[in-house]
From TrEMBL:
Assigned protein family: Belongs to the PI3/PI4-kinase family.
PROSITE patterns the record matches: FAT, FATC, PI3_4_KINASE_1, PI3_4_KINASE_2, PI3_4_KINASE_3
Protein name: non-specific serine/threonine protein kinase
PI3K/PI4K catalytic domain residues: 719-1043
Occurrences of domain FATC (ranges): 1064-1096
EC number, UniProt record: 2.7.11.1
Organism annotation: Wickerhamomyces mucosus
UniProt keyword list: ATP-binding, Kinase, Nucleotide-binding, Repeat, Serine/threonine-protein kinase, Transferase
Single GO biological process annotation from the record: negative regulation of macroautophagy
An MF annotation (GO) of this entry: protein-containing complex binding
Residue stretches making up the FAT domain: 1-545
InterPro entries: ARM-type_fold (IPR016024), DDR_Repair_Kinase (IPR050517), FATC_dom (IPR003152), FRB_dom (IPR009076), FRB_sf (IPR036738), HEAT_ATR (IPR057564), Kinase-like_dom_sf (IPR011009), PI3/4_kinase_cat_dom (IPR000403)
Gene Ontology terms: cellular component: cytoplasm; nucleus; TORC1 complex; TORC2 complex
Length: 1096
């Protein structure tokens, strides 16, 4: 752990006195620890804040070889240090010619010590160029007992077919590496990785001996080559590692004999920005004097060359070459360019593998489409036929390729979106047949078929495709041809496909159109048969809906499920109803209802709404209590509440307002008494509040949130007898249950929030995690978002999986300060001393007071907590890196989602891993930024305490680099994200904090919304109750659609870099930079409400 400990103390030294040696030491230690992001951050920090002269070695340590080489060449000094630096750069860049030349120049007049230093690099160059005699010269100078000498000797012996000698050298090299690897493996896997690769190379040298001893074209050789390829795909996708491994293999397999692997390597170089190496690798695959644009070069190499050309910025040239190349390939397959689809392939005799050739043609057509889309912003209007044609041909020439079907379906979908001229085709809920037959035939049916194909071919579960398909189904499903395509499609995909979109299926369960409604019900019934556990909870929510049509639809499906899973359905109803009973006791129900009713009566003068709030509760009282807790409530308050209700009924008969005032005197008295009792609610015993839950044991029902298809079901054995009430405003409960796997499962039970929102956000996080895992840069940084189960029980309550081993930031800071006798809200106190009426100050005055409070406190609490709570410096470093990266991931994803209200109690820190976990997703889609009171001014939380807990360079380094990678991935996958966010924004059941005043929505969207005061019209008798309800629903839909289109416009802007008014299409680094500036500016932070704790 020496390096990690050294890093901690060097950082302390740096923060007190930054100097060139300290910076160099920090870069060096971070490199030893494989913390390249942190090292880059220190370099940037040094440039920005300390005017330090950059050193070439710093670039080298950051593996920025081109920059380092430029710096060495610019130096002009010709000493051994510069020469070695140049040689190391040329070696990493694979420039063997230049490296060999430089080594040769230095060799003749140098001393033995210098020769010894130069030898390993010179030998590598000689090996790269096949200058075997020179290799001999270089090896003789190397240190006798060094792994390098043994390794190069083994290579040379192998080349000369001295196999016994080679084996001896390999054994010697391995023995020399053993001590190195044992020391590293115990400390850190990632640091030992390079040595493991060297050991793998030695193992492959032994295999090469066997390979050379096997007969040409033998089965043994083929098996070995297959193993090597398989093994390479298991390595990290890192250019330097692949380069070293492939170089060893060239001893027996030339690049042209292993074209596929070398093309993969070239693509890896291209994607990693090592364009020079990509070009070199591709040139190795060409015959002497081949021009990649002639028909002689192998087609797959030409295709890779064209992608390289596009990457270098020659986009239009690459596209025109690609079009020529595609028509040449079509010609080789004997196809007429005017009619590519109906003819059979009649390949020329010189084409060996027709199937491979046809697949490559499909890739070319897909790339044509993609590149044309990239070069034409408004292709949907001007060039849709050409592009759709390219994608269609890609599906034709490779019928089993997911990407082709996905792109074709998506392009059709986008054309439909544009032609229906709605901001989103989700908006129209009434399925009318005003759509033109051409739209249906040319775009809707192809899109439906395309999505079904792509879903059936996808390796993982393609959430974005399924959601787009649902959109088409709910919009066009009433039109016979489209309905027919849907019916055919359902047979193509596995029933499991629909598990991921259960929330969306359930939210449309009350479809007005009969055709869609019938097929939706039959799909849900099928799903209920295959996966009853997945459907029982969501249906239990739908059946408790306020909407009669939803209740009916849900109960029909539940009745169908009773036929095959009756025990499961009854158990789920029991558990769901009893948990809701635990979530909100009668005391709390009445407390909230009285609070609401008094606001409606005294504040809004709306007696009708007041009755509608109180009436259901009085009906509940009439039914009588079912548990001991409810009995005690009736004994204490029943008589008073019944008296009050008598007064209310008397008022309704006579309209005498004094009677209502009498009622309110009693209600207020009850309210006060309940208010005094509530704080005493700290634990709840199930025998008093939900005896049926306590009695429910050994159920068939799965523990909430644990059901995974294909895995054993974890059933509920029994519930914990006591649950704790958490003392916050909403008083959620923490309760546990025992699963059939013997483990205990804990949950947070909320009774006042719509958990469907959290459920949908978890869906989004699942998609983002898939995107991050598939990106090499994000994968190697282990970036992902922690998910937890969110199970709605009713439209107003639900369960959240308890996040284990975690504390909120608020708790961590509180513990730290209390242990040191520091006042918890010291910063706030300082602000109040200087300005008692802080909220009423002008912006500049607030800035002054806020800055004063920051200047007089240190804000190092979280940094100290991380260090003090780590059991070793190595675990401290791991946790700090995880903390910084996870904070960055959620900052970007939260920004896209418009997630607000990130106060210290909504952020948690995992005690073991250091991961930041976000909870409470009530404020999404910028609801917090648009609210009237204390609107938020920052895109995400990045206060000083969070920054101090990062590396010594603060936001430079891991935080910024992670932000840029995540934002790049989100922007590259804009379509997938928009699919899921559109489904959220137009979900008919969810408000997303859309309770904004109508005028705010009108101002921001530019849509003029008519507000009709239904209560007033009712009062004057101009409309009846039914009409009033209809108008209110219509208004809600209008407001929701206006708000949703605004939200989606904002998100599209964010995902294209158009989110800042004065700037168009910012690139990713500039966009991230602007966001970080916004999040850290004092002017923005000082305007938040005090509970947000901007000063922490």
């Amino acid at each position: 752990h020496a390096y990690a400990k050294a890093l901690h103390y060097k950082e302390l030294e740096f923060s007190q006195e930054p100097s060139t040696p300290t910076i160099e030491a920090l870069i060096s230690i971070n490199n030893q620890l494989q913390q390249t992001d942190a090292a880059t951050g220190i370099l940037k920090h040094a440039q920005q804040h300390h005017n330090l002269q950059l050193k070439e070695t710093w670039y080298e340590k950051l593996q920025r070889w081109e920059d380092a080489l430029k710096a060495y060449n610019a130096r002009g000094v010709d000493n051994i240090e510069t020469t070695m630096g140049k040689m190391r750069c040329l070696h990493a860049l694979g420039e063997w010619d230049q490296l060999a030349q430089l080594a040769q120049e230095k060799w003749t007049n140098s001393s033995t010590d210098i020769k010894r230093t130069v030898a390993p690099l010179a030998a590598a160059a000689a090996w790269g160029l096949g200058q075997w005699d020179r290799m001999d010269t270089y090896i003789t100078v190397m240190k006798p007992e060094s792994p390098d000498r043994a390794f190069f000797n083994a290579i040379l012996s192998l080349h000369r077919s001295n196999f016994d000698e080679a084996s001896a050298h390999i054994v010697q090299a391995r023995d020399l590496l053993v001590t190195e690897i044992t020391a590293l493996v115990s400390e850190s896997y990632s640091r030992a990785y390079n040595v493991v690769v060297r050991v793998q190379m030695l193992a492959e040298l032994e295999e090469i001996i066997k390979y050379k001893n096997s007969p040409q074209n033998s089965e043994a050789r083929a098996v070995m080559r297959k193993t090597w390829n398989f093994r390479l795909l298991g390595c990290q996708r890192n250019v330097d590692i692949w380069q070293r491994i492939l170089k060893v293999r060239t001893l027996v397999v030339k690049p042209k004999q292993d074209m596929e692997t070398w093309i993969k390597f070239a693509n890896l170089c291209r994607k990693s920005g090592r364009l020079g190496l990509a070009e070199k690798s591709l040139n190795l695959l060409l015959e002497e004097g081949d021009d990649p644009n002639t028909s002689k070069a192998p087609p797959q190499v030409v295709y890779a060359q064209l992608k390289y050309m596009w990457a270098t910025g020659l986009k239009r040239e690459a596209l025109s070459h690609l079009i020529d190349f595609t028509s040449r390939m079509s010609h080789d397959l004997g196809l007429n360019p005017d009619d590519l689809i109906t003819q059979p392939v009649q390949a020329q005799t010189n084409i060996k593998n027709v199937e491979e050739y046809t697949k490559l043609l499909a890739r070319c057509f897909l790339k044509q489409g993609e590149w044309q889309v990239a070069l034409q912003n408004n292709w949907r209007l001007e060039n849709s036929e050409t592009i759709l044609g390219s994608y269609l041909l890609a599906t034709h020439f490779d019928k089993n390729w997911y990407k082709a079907w996905h792109n074709w379906a998506l392009a059709n979908f986008e054309v439909i979106s544009l032609l229906t001229a709605k901001s989103s085709i989700n908006e129209t809920n009434d399925l009318d047949s005003t759509y033109s037959p051409e739209l249906i035939q040319q775009h809707v049916i192809p899109a439906i078929r395309g999505f079904f194909h792509s879903i059936s071919l996808s390796q993982s579960n393609p959430l974005q495709d399924t959601l787009r398909l649902l959109t088409l189904w709910f919009t066009f499903g009433g039109i016979p041809d489209a309905a027919q395509s849907m019916t055919e499609g359902f047979r193509m995909v596995k029933i499991d496909t629909w598990l991921e979109v259960i929330p969306q299926l359930i939210s449309r369960i009350h479809q007005p159109n009969q055709t869609v409604s019938r097929s939706l019900h039959s799909l849900l019934s099928e799903l209920g048969k295959a996966h009853p556990q997945a459907l029982v909870y969501p249906l239990a929510v739908a059946i408790k809906s306020d909407s009669i049509s939803r209740q009916r639809a849900a109960s029909t499906i539940i009745d169908t499920m009773r036929l095959h899973s009756s025990a499961l359905v009854s158990q789920s109803e029991l558990v769901s109803n009893e948990l809701i009973r635990v979530a909100v006791l009668w005391h709390e129900l009445w407390f909230e209802a009285l609070e609401d009713a008094s606001r409606l009566f005294f504040g809004e003068n709306n007696t009708e709404k007041m009755f509608s709030v109180l009436e259901p509760l009085h009906k509940m009282l009439e039914k009588g209590p079912e548990t001991l807790r409810e009995v005690s409530f009736v004994n204490t308050f029943g008589r008073d509440l019944n008296n009050a209700y008598d007064w209310v009924l008397s008022y309704r008969r006579t309209n005498d307002i004094t009677k209502l005032n009498q009622a309110w005197d009693i209600y207020y008295n009850v309210f006060r008494r309940i208010n005094r009792q509530l704080p005493q609610l700290q634990t709840l015993e199930l025998q008093y509040v939900a005896p049926r839950l306590l009695a429910a044991t050994d159920l068939d029902l799965a523990a909430p949130g644990t059901y995974t298809p294909g895995k054993p079901i974890i059933r509920i054995l029994n519930f914990e007898p006591i649950c704790t009430v958490i003392s916050s405003k909403q008083r959620p409960r923490r309760f546990g249950l025992k699963g059939s796997d013997g483990k205990e499962y804990f949950y947070l039970l909320k009774g006042h929030e719509d958990i469907r929102q959290d459920n949908l956000v978890m869906q989004l996080f699942g998609l983002v995690n898939t995107l991050l895992i598939n990106d090499p840069e994000c994968f190697k940084r282990h970036l992902d978002i922690q998910q937890f189960p969110a199970i709605p029980l009713s439209p107003k309550s639900g369960l959240l999986g308890w996040v284990p081993n975690s504390d909120t930031f608020h708790v961590l800071i509180k513990e730290y300060r209390e242990s040191r006798n520091i006042i918890l809200n010291i910063e706030h106190r300082i602000m109040l001393q200087m300005a008692p009426d802080y909220d009423n100050l002008t912006l500049l005055q607030k800035v002054e007071v806020f800055t004063y409070a920051l200047d007089n406190t240190r804000g190092q609490d979280l940094y100290k907590v991380l260090w003090l709570k780590s059991r070793s410096s190595e675990s401290w470093l791991d946790r700090r890196t995880t903390y910084t990266r996870s904070l960055a991931v959620m900052s970007m994803v939260g920004y896209i989602l418009g997630l607000g209200d990130r106060h210290p109690s909504n952020l948690m820190l995992d005690r073991i891993t250091g991961k930041v976990v976000h909870i409470d997703f009530g404020d999404c889609f910028e609801a917090a930024i648009l609210r009237e009171k204390f609107p938020e001014k920052v895109p995400f939380r990045l206060t000083r305490m969070l920054t101090y807990a990062m590396e010594v360079s603060g936001i430079e380094g891991s935080f910024r680099i992670t932000c840029e990678h995540v934002m790049r991935v989100l922007r590259d996958n804009k379509e997938s994200l928009m699919a899921i966010l559109e489904a959220f924004a137009y979900d008919p059941l969810i408000n997303w904090g859309f309770d904004l005043p109508t005028h705010v929505i009108s101002d921001v969207t530019g849509v003029k919304l008519q507000h009709v005061n239904t209560a007033d019209l009712l009062h004057r008798g101009q409309i009846d109750e039914e009409e009033a309800a209809r108008i209110e629903i219509q208004q809600k839909i209008e407001i929701r659609n206006a708000r949703a289109s605004l939200v989606l416009k904002r998100i599209t802007d964010k995902l294209t870099g158009n989110d800042f008014r004065r700037y168009n299409e910012l690139n990713v680094p500039d966009q991230v930079d602007k966001l970080i500036q916004q999040a850290t500016t004092v002017e923005n932070l000082c305007q938040h409400y005090i509970g947000w704790c901007s000063f922490w």
